[in-house]
Amino acid sequence: MENIQGKVVVITGASSGLGEATARFLSAQGATVVLGARRVDRLQALATGLNRDGAEALVVTTDVTHRDQVKKLVDAAVQKYGRIDVMINNAGLMPQSPLERLKIDEWNRMIDVNIKGVLYGIAAALPYMKQQKAGHFINVSSVAGHKVGPGFAVYAATKHAVRALSEGLRQEVKPYNIRTTVVSPGAVATELPNSVTEPDIADRIQKFYDEIAIPAESFARAVAFAMSQPEDVDVNEILFRPTRQEL
Ligand SMILES: NC(=O)c1ccc[n+]([C@@H]2O[C@H](COP(=O)([O-])OP(=O)(O)OC[C@H]3O[C@@H](n4cnc5c(N)ncnc54)[C@H](OP(=O)(O)O)[C@@H]3O)[C@@H](O)[C@H]2O)c1
């Protein structure tokens, strides 16, 4: 694939699922990956494997709810590699439940990780990209950024917010030659269903994922497609689902 080799790519939520699969896929195409998440043992194991295959990977322990930690992640990428080409704001969680169950701590957590985490990623990378007059934000929304249904109002609200932020960002960064892509996956097999704490809902979601979820590499290929376009082509939205997914 064109236009991936040598790029410095920062990925939040790289310790599992979509982030991990993307780190593997892009580094196989010659990208340098900078991996952020809280489970540093998982990141280290991933980086060690990538290094063994001859790829360049850096690990920075990052909780995206802390603005200073996200800044440290991006600063570390620029200090070590001299630039940041792509910022993938991917970290997220999906503790679904109907509003009437009043899982207010989980609402706050989704707002903190899924929205504020993305904002902190933008805040950390934008000054560098502005200066470089080049860069690419890839923000992870969801089918739930396009559809709302009973049981996932708050998750859907956070993922709608990611799309709104990305569209605003897209319009504002035109003068700096920065690209913006929102990727909205349907059901992809990752650890995401583990974030559901209500047992009845967790069961239902796990069953749904077991039946139809597609491999995480589907997401990595979508990211690679957007990245690999010529620099004057800005792929703004990618929405994909398992072929069998109805909603
Ligand atoms: N899988 C799907 O079907 C699907 C569909 C649509 C959208 N998405 C979105 O895709 C993104 C990735 O999810 P996934 O499916 O790959 O699930 P996952 O396997 O559970 O991965 C979630 C990642 O986010 C990280 N994370 C969670 N809280 C964090 C925090 N406070 N600070 C830093 N990292 C944090 C986790 O790392 P640590 O726990 O190590 O910090 C983990 O690496 C999420 O935004 C999710 O909403 C997924």
Model description:
There is one protein chain. Helix content is 47%, strand content 15%. The protein has 247 residues and is an alpha/beta fold. Strand 2, helix 2 (40-52) and strand 3 form a beta-alpha-beta unit. The structure holds NADP nicotinamide-adenine-dinucleotide phosphate. NADP nicotinamide-adenine-dinucleotide phosphate binds next to helix 1.
Short description:
With 247 residues, the protein is of the alpha/beta class. The chain has helices at 17-28, 40-52, 67-81, 104-132, 153-172, 199-212, 217-228, and strands at residues 8-12, 32-37, 57-61, 86-89, 135-140, 178-185, 237-240. It has a 7-stranded parallel beta sheet with strand order 3-2-1-4-5-6-7, with helices on both faces.
How would you summarize the topology of this molecule?
Layout: E1 8-12, H1 17-28, E2 32-37, H2 40-52, E3 57-61, H3 67-81, E4 86-89, H4 104-132, E5 135-140, H5 153-172, E6 178-185, H6 199-212, H7 217-228, E7 237-240
Parallel strand pairs: 1-2, 1-4, 2-3, 4-5, 5-6, 6-7
Helix pairs in contact: 1-7, 3-4, 4-5
Bound molecules: NADP nicotinamide-adenine-dinucleotide phosphate (NAP).
NADP nicotinamide-adenine-dinucleotide phosphate binds next to helix 1.
Distance between the termini: 32 Å
Helices, by number, come to 7
Query: What is the helical fraction, as a range of percent?
Result: 40-55%
Low-confidence stretches: none
Which structural class is indicated by helix and strand composition?
A: alpha/beta
Bound molecules: NADP nicotinamide-adenine-dinucleotide phosphate
| Major β-sheet annotation | 7 strands, parallel
Which geometry do the CA atoms define?
Answer: globular
Question: In what range is the share of β-strand residues?
Answer: 15-25%
Number of strands: 7
User: Helix and strand succession?
Assistant: EHEHEHEHEHEHHE
Name the strands of the widest sheet in spatial order.
Answer: 3-2-1-4-5-6-7
Task: Please tell me the overall pLDDT.
Answer: 98
